[in-house]
Amino acid sequence: MSEFQVARYENADITTWDFAMFKAELQSGLDAYAGLVYTDETIGSAKNDRATLNKVKKVIEDARKEYKARCLAPYEALEPQIKELVEMVEKQRTLIDETVKDYENRQKEAKEIEVRQYYNRKAVVLGTYADILYPKLFDKKWLNASTSRAKCEESILIAINGAVTDMEAIRASGSPFVETLLDIYAETLSMEQVKAKQNELETAAKKASLTTTGKTGDVIAAKESVQDNILPVKAGCEAGTDVKIYVTENQWKQLSDFMKAIGVRYELL
Fold this sequence. Notes:
The protein is mostly helical. It is about 70% helix and about 0% strand.
């Protein structure tokens, strides 16, 4: 695009531009650059062409920015007054909003008391796990004003029955680690994590039974490998038998689960 063609639009009001003509002229000028290959010897030409295109871009951009500022000027003059009106409304709206929210919160607190009382009556079937499971089973929708008492109570019963079904399945599994698995369920409300823990404990139990037949050297080597991570344990029944067990942190976790499963009482020193 020639300097003359650029200058034609440079000082003209953008609202007077013939955009169709400008676009056609622009495309014609750009086509002249299509397929050009610049070498080290013609780098001077490349710089000149870049300067020409920079100027064309600047003409367009300057016109756009000037027109935008001109369009926004009336709005910017009114904006402070508009914001002042909004702030006047917002000040009173906030006061009312606080009153409404306080009322709604008190309603939810009262409803939660009713929900917990109903849950306590129906969650007897969960035994000692009822309190632990409540936060996991709780659904904040129960407190919504749009949730009727009947719908709320129905939802609570469904949640309790679901937990009962899962816990019965755990007990019916016949695993020697039932108590531990029930604890995992109460903490996570996840049967997948229960199954993962069951597999972990059963695998550890199998390995433990195999190591009892291992060679003395293997046992000594295993003991030496954990000397830097000793966890002293006082273990035994009411008669009281003191032992020291050398275990890693992960091994202790598995061992404590196993002891709990077979009813061994222990005390950390």
